[in-house]
Amino acid sequence: MERYFFNHRDAEGHLETDIDGIVLPSLNTALEEASFAARSALALADDPTGGCFEIEDGGRRLLARLPYALATDPDSDA
Fold this sequence. Notes:
The chain has one domain. The chain starts with a strand and ends in an 8-residue tail after the last strand. It is 23% helix and 40% strand. It is of the alpha+beta class. The chain has one helix at residues 27-44, and strands at 2-10, 15-16, 22-24, 49-56, 62-70. InterPro entries: DUF6894 (IPR054189).
C-alpha cells in the first residue's frame, strides 16, 4: 500500500500542503477519496467556489489533479 498526499489549491491559487497523507491501496482509491472531498466541499458551499486537489505519492511526485467548481445558475436571480 502507498501513502498519498492530498494538497488543496483554492480558487485564488493558495496551496494547502497535506503533511500527513493517507495510506491507500491504489491511485484509483486516492482519486475516489479526492472526488468525495470535492463533492463535500461543493455541498457545503453557499457561494460559487472552486479548487483543485493535487494528489502526490509517497515520494511527493504529482500523480493527478482533480479540479472542481460550483458556479451560479445563469438562469437564477442570484
